[in-house]
Amino acid sequence: MIEIANLEEWTKEYFSDPENQKKAEKACERYDRLMVKNIKRQLSGGAEKIFLNEEPADDPGKCMEKAKYEVIPFAKVDGKKGKVKINMLDQTAEFVSE
Q1: Which of 32, 68, 85, 95 suits 11 as a labelling partner, its CA being 20 to 30 A distant?
Q2: Residues in contact with 88: Cβ distance below 8 Å, sequence separation at least 6, in sequence order
Q3: Beta-bridge partner residues of 81
Q4: How far is CA 40 from its chain centroid?
Q5: Confidence of residue 57 (pLDDT cuts 50, 70, 90)
Q6: Can you give the pLDDT at residue 75?
Q7: Structural contact between residues 2 and 75, judged by C-beta atoms closer than 8 angstroms
Q8: What is the C-alpha R_g of the chain?
């Protein structure tokens, strides 16, 4: 279990690591590829409007979400147990308590 005293500082440290920066870059590239695939699917389906910011409803494996987020399942923040959900695209993190 990882204990985090200050989530904002931890997030800055996390993304200052070159290895995590590389993971973030790869996540952005993968997300972009999936977004293009999603737009092509909408166009081929005859969509009159293209939705860019919404997750596709027909993404059964949640591929786009998996590309966007990394989750640390066992974390403790302010004495509470839960998980840390890291947004690799925005380089932010949020704590989700159990």
Answers
A1: 32
A2: 23, 24, 27, 28, 67, 68, 69, 70
A3: 76
A4: 22
A5: low
A6: 95
A7: yes
A8: 16
